[in-house]
Amino acid sequence: MQNGMSGAPVPDYDVAVIGGGLVGSMAAIMLRKRGLRVAVLESRARGQGLKAVVGEALTEGTSVFLHHEIGLTDWLAEHGFRKFGFDFVTQPRGRPAPQVLDGCHELLLSLTPLERISGAFPRLIPTYHVNRPPLDAELARRAEAAGAELMYGAPVRRVELGDGLHRVVHGEPDPEDGAEASLTCKWVLDASGRRRMLARQLGITRPVEGLETAAIWTRFTKVRRDDAFWSTFRGIDRRRHTIHFSGPGYWFWWIHIDDDTTSVGVSFDKSQHQPDVKADDRGFWAMAEKFPALVAALAGAEPVEPFSYLANLPHATEHWVSTRGYALIGDASAFVDALYSVGIEMACRQLVAVTPLIEAACADAQPCAKTIAQLNREHELMQDSVRLLNKFKYEHAWHQPHVLMQTALYDLAEIAELYHLQAAKHWTRANLERHYRLQWSSEARRRKLVRFMTTAAPDGAREDGRLLAKALLPGRLVYTFTWPLWHLPKARPYFFIITRAWGYMERLTQRLRLWPDFLKLMAGPRRSAAAQAEPEVEGAVERGS
Questions:
Q1: Is the four-CA dihedral 166, 70, 257, 419 of positive or negative sign?
Q2: Can you tell me whether residue 166 is helix, strand or coil?
Q3: Does residue 233 form part of some domain?
Q4: N or C: which end of the chain has fewer CB within 10 A?
């Protein structure tokens, strides 16, 4: 078909999205809201079950996107598990590994106390643990309801990039005449995840230097539910947070999805750990035994599905968006580590950045090479900053509680900018360009991050035999002192900016003893370790695959 005015061929669609998972569905919904014609090509057959994948903890950055662009707030409130922060647990050095959680170093960053304060709790950006198959299915349903054409059983074989008109070849050739099924479009979005279909075709994918990490994970059922085991400072339930169990060169995530399902996995530095990944459990229990309190937490639990293993976690691409009319979104463009589930949030930020370019192209405007070059530069800086941060944690932080605490508090301040976007009236292009760019994507932010890590590293040697047991628990007193930040226009982000100051204050507290240890006072005592007695389960853990 041709345009009657110009004679140029009219594409079948404005945008073809490769991959019908979470990211592909989000892209389709966002583009349909702007009136564009969208096809989503998914390799699975319609009705084929979705497999469980990691990325089960939704951050504030993902939450604001899902609220404004997808309208998923009510669905998440009904089907997600509301989480309130992070818990970091690491073992003391120079003594036998504790069998219970209260025998470990612990830093709890929790907004739980604000739940009881009506002036604060409704003003928080909600975050969730989610069961991914139902979430992914709901997004696909919404994409189709929005008018996107979901083409199931259509694996993309290749993309033929043209000058303003691309051909996407999918499915198997006709067995009789060899004819290939295809469609044409103006833009291609690769949301194929780690398959990186388009990046591999173009030869622009590459490994991440200096970070040799792998991961093993599964979901468990029959996880112990006794409240006494999970209770920590001031009676707060650890399961309401994303829990990190860490040691030299590794960290485990613990994500409570619902009373029947818990996601547990480990990321580790392969230069420091070599579990037998050919075993049925892919080496999971060999890694878990490095943290006996974690094994106790899994006493009696059973894996829901076989253990998964990913041999090479990080990867990168030379660029993620091109003047030729394509973009690589989410894991199709880069991945460094599962920490904080930032991969989904990165995809959300990429979609916000690329959508105006797609709209302009579909209105026959020429792509702005300067804008695209800037977006690629920011992506490059982001990838390198996240690589440096994770390399630092594997080498210096995961097993050193004072360093881990400082970096965790520093990371928390990244939330602040998102409160500039919480209200619908603030979800504007100007605000998004200012507050929703890729994280750590400027030279200045990268320098600040490196400087902070460099000055935090010396505190790794400060472990003196005493347990670090601290918590950031903003309650009624903190709310009273910060009341204006909760209620004055545009002031709320500064509440979270203040959290970064705790990192510096804590550093001075442990080095110079200039003032009381506020985080220790805020935490209060933990329960006695006796309350976390070994579970009454013979054989402790079900270790089948």
A1: positive
A2: strand
A3: yes
A4: N
Residues making up the chain, counted from first to last: 545
**Residue 477 identity (one-letter amino acid):** L
Beta strands in 464-522 (DSSP E): 469-472
Between the two ends of the chain, the Cα-to-Cα distance in Å is 54
- Main-chain dihedrals φ then ψ at residue 68, nearest 5 degrees: -80, -40
Look at residue 8 in the predicted model and tell me its pLDDT: 66
Q: Is the pTM of this model over 0.90?
A: yes
Q: Is 242 inside any structural domain?
A: yes
Model pLDDT, residue 178: 78
CA distance 119 to 105: 33
Report the alpha-carbon distance of residue 339 to residue 265 in Å, rounded. Answer: 11
Q: Please list the residues that pair with 204 across neighbouring strands.
A: none
Strands (E), 171-222: 181-190, 205-207, 213-221
CATH label of the domain that carries residue 275: 3.30.9.100
User: What span, in angstroms and rounded, lies between the C-alpha atoms of 38 and 30?
Assistant: 10
Q: Residue 274 sits in which domain range?
A: 213-310
Let me know: does 189 contact 353? Beta carbons within 8 Å. no
**What pLDDT shows up at residue 49?**
80
CB 135, CB 22: distance < 8 Å:
yes
Q: Is the pLDDT of residue 533 over 80?
A: no
**3-state class (DSSP) for residue 361:** helix
Distance CA 480, CA 243 (A): 29
Please tell me the distance from the alpha carbon of residue 484 to that of residue 481, in angstroms, as a whole number: 8
The pair of three-digit structure tokens given for residue 357, joined into one six-digit string: 């370019």
Residue 401 included in any domain: no
Domain count within the chain = 1
Averaged pLDDT score across all residues of the chain:
90
Is 347 inside a domain boundary?
no
Cα dihedral 327, 330, 335, 339, rounded to 10, equals 160
Q: Is residue 217 a contact partner of residue 308, using CB atoms and an 8 Å limit?
A: yes
